[in-house]
């Protein structure tokens, strides 16, 4: 719009009339004034700047999704006319908005106006809306002397002037919604783009776009483009390291790429290593060290300085948090402030993009902002205050982990109580599910707390003890073993015998789960000696129980029975119902493994009663699964399926990953025995993935063997052979003779079917030797019956009949359903018509 537009002329005419009246009253020459007013032509129009966008970003890279979102939402056919782009300092808000504005410019022919609002410009105060409106109105041709004096007057004139125009207004670096609301136009043909470090939640009718850091590929592409270097395949790892060390923050990438471009002799791997080793990484992220250079730290400082003194302290102390994210409880502990205030402070820091929200109620700063906060607290907060804040945080995590462990640990465990005063605010953990959720959420933070606990041996021992049950249930077991070794060493060094014994017993349990049986024995033997020296009968019972589990896993069934019976007596002595239930269940498991199904059923039923009496859901789930295994062994697949599904529901409810893996394994076995091979394979594969995730090699070996059985039943012989070979190698490495016997029985069946009865017979003989060595009656019977089938095909009928009779006698004695099929085969053999049962009719080892 120019100076000849109607509105300015009307304003000029009113002003001139007022001047005329004033001159007449003062006695001036009225005629001369009237002639001047009447015959003078209009004043020449002042030059206007209606195309003031900053230059487009020549090297604009990435942000394809965000750019497309902005162009689609702000382009022709848009519904909303105000769009905001917010994000942390250096995220690339202005670059994106500038690039989008140039792409959109053709749709706004009346002008594209850029107004910096200077919310975070060093050395400048944020722009006042009244001054910005003056600048905008002057650009539209309103002369300075005709500008209204008030904000309200200028706002009304601005809306009037934009009502019929097609303008694009770009407001950069807005402070808050109060700064930009007066600048919003009223014309339906106008568009306003606003960038801000703050989430402008109070700006109604606006569509917000929040920018995150760049995806790795876009960050790498930006670095390569700005560095003007070709990156070969051998440098790809170094390139990824660089952008990750920058936190994939565009400003940091721009600065590093520019620095790298100025040094053609530098290689990318050298540059990456040099930047990674920098003590002051933020200091490295500057353009050149000259006054006025853009630096990441300077960008952060402008946001920090805009906070209140109290909020600055909260931001600084968050830098002391050792983990990746935190919540209001941790913030309250760090700052010694009420929980509600901590929530408010975190929300405000999130609104200012100094924190990201990773999940509802959980926050984390960008890596470079975290480094900035740590530098600030080092410079601003005395060492003793930093130490007190850290102590409050560690105490919060220790106390809450202990509270969670009360729901997770078995009743036989005596956890070490936390020291010190409980935190002022801690989450309510009313049941096991809440405790498990808290542990899962805070797992990484608990590990980080251990990393900064240093030489505080009592805290290390207590905190690891509080995590022990959770780690045993969910892993990772390799990390758990390392932690328990650390706890045992710390307790030993501080002469804490009960802490040492507890850590060793926990270590034994983890070694058992990972199949490191010799190490498990050493750990629980040391724990047993300590408990006996302390006169701690419950601890002694737990150590003996752990010894029995190792003996069972390695096929030493007589020793296992003796250990579980001794543990049962000790648990009865101290009145531990949960311990008695566990010992009874394990005695039943010995019977299951050796094939004595009747006795197994009786023992497990007795354990189930005790588990229910002491409301032990985990034990009840295990007992249900044990009874399902009895049902599998005795051929009652319908009952087995029902019991397994009941156990699975219980394990899912309490979040027991290992229990879930075991149930899926046995459900797969039931499906195989009912000839549902595809579903059996799928169930076994799901179980195998869980065992691999946990690091449970014994579980992996069993599932591989069962998968081989599915393939064998489905006549997929080559795949079955590979699976049996994998399983056998694992069992051998574990020292599990009973597991080896089971796999060898399967291999004998495979070889007899594919190579010949002679090869099959040789493998069955090996299986028979191992089965008798470990007193596994079921595997002994299977080896005898398998060898008899091979001897029949080799023409050794008398030896075959003798072997069959021995095997059938064992099966009948232990109540195994396989006795029926074997008896039918013996009848055929004695009737001179030997045949082969269908593969899917073979029963499974339990």
Topology summary:
Elements: H1 6-25, H2 30-39, H3 64-74, E1 82-86, H4 93-104, E2 112-116, H5 129-139, H6 151-162, E3 168-174, H7 177-180, E4 191-196, E5 206-210, H8 216-227, H9 236-245, H10 250-261, H11 268-277, H12 281-284, H13 296-305, H14 309-318, H15 328-335, H16 339-351, E6 356-359, E7 362-364, H17 367-380, H18 383-408, H19 432-453, H20 457-474, H21 477-493, H22 497-513, H23 517-534, H24 537-553, H25 557-574, H26 577-594, H27 597-613, H28 617-633, H29 637-654, H30 657-673, H31 677-694, H32 697-713, H33 717-734, H34 737-754, H35 757-774, H36 777-793, H37 797-814, H38 818-830
Parallel strand pairs: 1-4, 1-5, 2-3, 3-4
Antiparallel strand pairs: 6-7
Helix pairs in contact: 1-2, 3-4, 5-6, 8-9, 8-10, 9-11, 14-17, 15-16, 15-18, 18-19, 18-20, 19-20, 20-21, 20-22, 21-22, 22-23, 22-24, 23-24, 24-25, 24-26, 25-26, 26-27, 26-28, 27-28, 28-29, 28-30, 29-30, 30-31, 30-32, 31-32, 32-33, 32-34, 33-34, 34-35, 34-36, 35-36, 36-37, 37-38
Number of helices: 38
Q: Give me the secondary-structure category.
A: mainly alpha
Overall pLDDT: 86
For the termini, the CA-CA separation is: 90 Å
Low-confidence stretches: 1-42, 289-293, 834-846
Shape: elongated
Q: Residue share in helices? A: 55-70%
Radius of gyration: 39 Å
Strand line-up in the sheet with most strands: 2-3-4-1-5
Number of strands: 7
Strand content: under 5%
Describe the biggest sheet? 5 strands, parallel
